[in-house]
Structures are given as structure tokens and as C-alpha cells.
TrEMBL record:
Keywords attached to this entry: FAD, Flavoprotein, Oxidoreductase, Transit peptide
Residue ranges of domain Acyl-CoA dehydrogenase/oxidase N-terminal in the record: 15-126
Gene3D superfamilies per the UniProt record, alphabetical: Acyl-CoA dehydrogenase/oxidase, N-terminal domain (1.10.540.10), Butyryl-CoA Dehydrogenase, subunit A, domain 2 (2.40.110.10), Butyryl-CoA Dehydrogenase, subunit A, domain 3 (1.20.140.10)
Name of the featured protein: Acyl-CoA dehydrogenase family protein
């Protein structure tokens, strides 16, 4: 139970879900919170070390089954994402890109040989994966991707580039999506393959406790068994994005909760004009509105998680969650910053770090506008994307 839980939302969780949440919260308190401000300021994070620690707890690919994965529920995975992002969005991104994008793509579309090769070490954090879909000139329009795959005898040749790829500078394998003669196909590409080069992207103002890279593919020769046999067409990578967006629906709530709890503690102890900030009507109105939005966001995330566990979650429903929860989390972070005043921009408090991170979360894995169009198409039956 947290100070912002007005509606006794904990009662909606079962004992196992609360236990998983508590374990992840302790890990974040012990391993992330003491260091994350410094990681953010320096733009560096011990990604491999963290991955192994997360792997020991079974957090990597935790909602997948077999191959060393924990086989947890969608709700349990969501709660883990919430607690991770309460530490930092970049830390949650490490876990969700590993499990819900790279591992999920191999688990869902890969061959048995690919699953046995990659998933067990990825589940322990000994191997790190990334997901190569976004390109320098084709972010929200993956159908226009320029990366090409062509057959050369029994092999494949990949040529092109991917940008803004989380985990790429430390990854061992990338799931690369390319356009082939028969349509969009996916490949498991070892990043030490000849012709692959990775450049870390620096000078970010957001998600600085996360490693991001650009992948260049210069006629990379791959054996036939690098192809993900079950992935044919653009629906395959989009299904992976839907999987990852579910974690974002929950994760954004973690950043918002950390902002709210920090602000409540500050406002009840900081005195202005002879009384605590929390004693002023305008401050209480801000706190009340933010807490109400947080409750609504949690109820939405929980409903989507229960639908996912029942096998009934649809992509446009995930778009509702991503659009609402990230948008409201960012609004909460900005409002909390106003209550802290100048201290709100200080690295001594997590508010501005969360706000900066949420600016990225707002636009990655589908901008707000894209999710509005997904929802609009569901409501009207009309495609407004082009």
C-alpha cells in the first residue's frame, strides 16, 4: 500500500502478485535508487551487471514460458515494470526490450534451434538482445523501411541501418526487420557478425540511464537459419510492439508514483508563509487531481493485464492504455515539478529525471498520435494513417 492508493487497489491483487511486486521493489530500492541519479547525470549505466541481477530474479522474459523463462502472468509482469520504472524508465526499458521485444520475437516466431540457442542465456542476462525496427528516416512508418534482405544462394545478405535501438551497444543479438522480395522478414543477427557495426548514441537529454545505439548493416551475410521462420509480414514486428506496450502501460505508473510520493513528502515538510506547502488549497487540489488520475491509470492497467491473462487483449486496447497512462504520467511529473519549485529541477530529487524520461516514453513504441489513430480506426472503421 502506498500513500497514493486512495481506493485500496492492493485488494485487487492476489498474494503472489503482491509478493512479486515486493521483491522487485526491494531490488530497485537496493540496486537502482542509490545510483540512478549518478547514472543519469553521467549518461552511463552498468547494463550487463543489471541484466544478470534481473536474470537471477527471473525478470527477463518473465511472462514467457519454457527455455528458462519464469512463465509469470501478464499482471505480474506489469507490476514488475511499474516497480522498475519507479526507479527509472531506462532501467525498465532494459528489461522490456530484452523480454518483450527481443526474446518475445524469438519465442513467438523463431525456430526451435533459435529458441534453444538464445532464450536460456537471455533469460539469465548472460546474453542481451535488442530489437531493430526503427530506422533513421522511418520511425512511425515501419512499412517504409529501407533495410533490405536478399537471398544469395542459401544465405541472406542484409543491408541498411537501424536507429534509436535500446540495448544495442551492449547486445549480443539483434532481431532485425528487413524488407525482402516476399515482404518484411525478421532475422536473429549476432552483433559480432562481419559487416555489423554499432555506434552508441550520446548527448541524450532523456533515458540517460539506458544505452541506445545505431546499427549499420553493410551486406551482412547470414546463414539461412538466421531467418525467423514464423515472422512474415509487418504484423510480426507490430505484434512485438503490442507486447512491449503492455509493459509501458504499467511502467509509466511507476514513474508517476515516484513523483507523487516524492512530492507528498516534500509538500508536507516544506514550510512557506508559516505552514507546510501541503496545507494550501491550491497544492491540495493539485495533489488530489494527480492521485485520482493515478488510480484511474492503475485500474486501466490492471484491466488490460487481466484481459491479457485471459487471452482476450486486443492491440487497440493496449493503445488506450499507452495513450492514457503515459500522457497522464507526464502531466503528473510536470505538475509535481511545480510544487517542488526550483528543487524540482535538481538532481537531488527524481522529478525532472522522470519528466525527461517520460518525454521519450510518450513517443517511443508508437507516438500519442499513432495511438489516437489506432483508437480512431477502431471507433470509425476508417483508416486515417495515410
Amino acid at each position: 500500500m502506498t500513500p497514493v492508493d486512495l481506493l485500496d487497489l492492493d485488494s485487487l491483487l492476489d498474494d503472489e502478485e503482491r509478493q512479486i511486486r515486493s521483491v522487485v521493489r526491494r531490488l530497485v530500492d537496493d540496486r537502482v535508487r542509490p545510483h540512478v541519479a549518478e547514472w543519469y547525470e553521467q549518461g552511463q549505466v552498468p547494463a550487463r551487471e543489471l541484466a544478470r541481477e534481473f536474470g537471477r530474479l527471473g525478470l527477463l522474459g518473465m511472462h514467457l514460458t519454457g527455455y528458462g523463462c519464469a512463465g509469470s502472468t501478464a499482471v505480474a509482469y506489469g507490476l514488475a515494470c511499474l516497480e522498475l520504472e519507479a526507479g527509472d524508465s531506462g532501467v525498465r526499458s532494459l528489461v522490456s526490450v530484452q523480454g518483450s521485444l527481443a526474446m518475445y520475437a524469438i519465442w513467438r516466431y523463431g525456430s526451435e534451434e533459435q529458441k534453444r540457442r538464445w532464450l536460456p542465456p537471455m533469460a539469465t542476462g548472460e546474453a542481451i538482445g535488442c530489437f531493430g525496427l526503427t530506422e533513421p528516416d522511418h520511425g512511425s512508418d515501419p512499412a517504409s523501411m529501407a533495410t533490405r534482405a536478399r537471398r544469395d544462394g542459401d544465405d541472406w545478405l542484409l543491408h541498411g541501418g537501424k536507429m534509436w535501438i535500446t540495448n544495442a551497444p551492449v547486445a549480443d543479438v539483434a532481431v532485425i526487420w528487413a524488407r525482402a522480395e516476399e515482404g518484411v522478414r525478421g532475422f536473429a543477427v549476432p552483433l559480432d557478425a562481419p559487416g555489423v557495426s554499432v555506434r552508441e548514441m550520446r548527448r541524450k537529454m532523456s533515458l540517460r540511464a539506458s544505452v541506445t545505439g545505431e546499427i549499420a548493416l553493410d551486406d551482412v551475410r547470414l546463414p539461412a537459419d538466421a531467418l525467423l521462420p514464423g515472422a512474415a509480414g509487418l504484423k510480426a514486428p507490430l505484434s512485438c510492439l503490442t507486447e512491449a506496450r503492455h509493459g509501458i502501460v504499467w511502467g509509466a505508473l511507476g514513474a508517476a508514483r515516484d513523483c507523487l510520493e516524492t512530492t507528498l513528502g516534500y509538500a508536507t515538510t516544506r514550510t512557506q508563509f508559516g505552514r507546510p506547502l501541503a496545507g494550501f488549497q491550491l497544492t491540495q487540489a493539485k495533489l488530489a487531481d494527480m492521485a485520482v488520475e493515478w488510480q484511474k491509470g492503475f485500474l486501466l492497467a490492471l484491466h488490460l493485464g487481466r484481459l491479457a491473462d485471459a487471452g482476450r487483449l486486443r492491440p487497440e486496447q493496449v493503445s488506450v492504455g499507452k495513450l492514457n497512462n503515459v500522457r497522464e504520467a507526464l502531466a503528473i511529473a510536470r505538475q509535481c515539478r511545480t510544487i517542488l519549485g526550483a528543487n524540482g529541477v535538481s538532481g537531488e530529487y527524481p522529478i525532472m529525471r522522470h519528466a525527461n524520461n517520460l518525454e521519450s516514453v510518450l513517443t517511443y513504441e508508437g507516438t500519442s498520435e499513432i495511438h489516437q489513430l489506432v483508437i480512431g480506426q477502431r471507433l470509425t472503421g476508417l483508416n486515417a494513417f495515410a
